Amino acid sequence: MNKGCVLEQFDGPMLTRAGRVFPGERAVFGGHDLHSAFADAGWVDLYVFGISGLRLQPAQLKVLESVWVYTSYPDARLWCNRVSALTASSRGTGAQALAAGIVASEASLYGLGPETTIGDFLVRALAAKCGGADLDQLVRAELKQHRHMMGYGRPVGADFVDERIPVSLARMEELGVAMGPHLRLAFELEEALGRVTGKRLPMTMATMMVALPLDFGLSVRQAYLCILPQFVAGMLPCYAEALARPSGATFALRCERIAYDGAPPRAWDACPTSPHKPT
């Protein structure tokens, strides 16, 4: 369909299922009156409903909120928190720090970037397992195609158990939320990966963050949207602390303080035919 046809098809008032506000009267959210249907709802309840159209059980919502809490690290050395802190150091606004931090959390090796890949693989692997596929073969095929499996082996401390997983499992047990098929499969894949590679590559929290909403009925895309705010609570303390320092004082570090053990300094001799000469 060309652009002209698209514009023609959607010409006129925008049709929406998301909602609409009627100033002075009411607000509609997903087909429901916001102020009556969600009068007692928590923010996470409303957030998940807006994404998926699902009203999760209170215990499931508490699990989701808890895993967000457990992954909220206010350490300015972490990539997205560093962006928020440096935004404060340059006297950017809180909104700029938060938006930039969330964007930075969508990295390709950690954070939100791998979580979409993880979710896609969990869904495919579960379907294959239900069809009788061997998990070791699935892992071998994934490694052959991608050379590694996202969600296993933490970038920092790859051979350590992710400290957020045990407390999350304990919280699930406390709330009576059983482990669903995607999360069970995630642990089974961890064992299969160890058998195939001969290495200990424990599952990371990223895998659990995706598996939980999948087990609660969300799609991969919905799970991605669901976990977008997972690092937010750790970003703003870093912003506030950096804002209390003088401008430019965050991560001020002399080169001499860096423990560098790479290649030694070397003189650069320009190629005789190169127009670029050292000065």
UniProtKB/TrEMBL annotation:
InterPro entries registered for this protein in UniProt: Citrate_synthase_sf (IPR036969)
GO MF terms, alphabetically ordered: acyltransferase activity, acyl groups converted into alkyl on transfer
SUPFAM superfamilies to which the protein is assigned, alphabetical: Citrate synthase
Name this protein carries in UniProt: Citryl-CoA lyase
Organism whose genome encodes this protein: Pseudoduganella namucuonensis
Organism lineage string: Bacteria, Pseudomonadati, Pseudomonadota, Betaproteobacteria, Burkholderiales
